[in-house]
Design goal:
Helix content is 50%, strand content 29%. By secondary structure, the chain is of the alpha+beta class. The radius of gyration is 22 Å and the shape is elongated.
Length: 113
């Protein structure tokens, strides 16, 4: 009986700790998003490619910059006007159509150069 009671107490304590950690993570995430938003700059997306490489979309004023970060090196990959990027904010399309439109946009921009 005593062994079952201590096991139940341990299970309840574990569940409470997990729920507490979940809500603290949500609060920290919201605070971080507020810190990352500036008046004129905004980080739209960040994707880790490898252990030390990431691609970041940064919106500055009316332009969206695609930059690659590798260690201490930053490279500008492309800059896109906000008007070309505005089709993503509609929300009426599924992710497959959005991916196709993004791929077509980048193909057109690469082959123009």
């Amino acid at each position: 009986m005593n062994n079952t009671l201590s096991g139940l107490f341990l299970l309840i304590a574990t569940v409470i700790t997990i729920v507490f950690a979940y809500y603290i993570t949500i609060i920290i995430g919201k605070k971080t998003n507020k810190l990352m938003k500036g008046r004129y700059t905004q980080v739209l997306e960040r994707t880790m490619i490898g252990l030390n490489i990431s691609i970041t979309l940064v919106k500055i004023n009316k332009k969206i910059y695609i930059i690659a970060l590798q260690g201490k090196t930053i490279k500008l990959l492309d800059a896109i006007d906000e008007s070309e990027w505005s089709f993503l904010t509609t929300g009426n399309e599924n992710s497959f159509e959005i991916n196709n439109r993004i791929n077509n946009l980048f193909k057109n921009r690469l082959f123009k150069k």
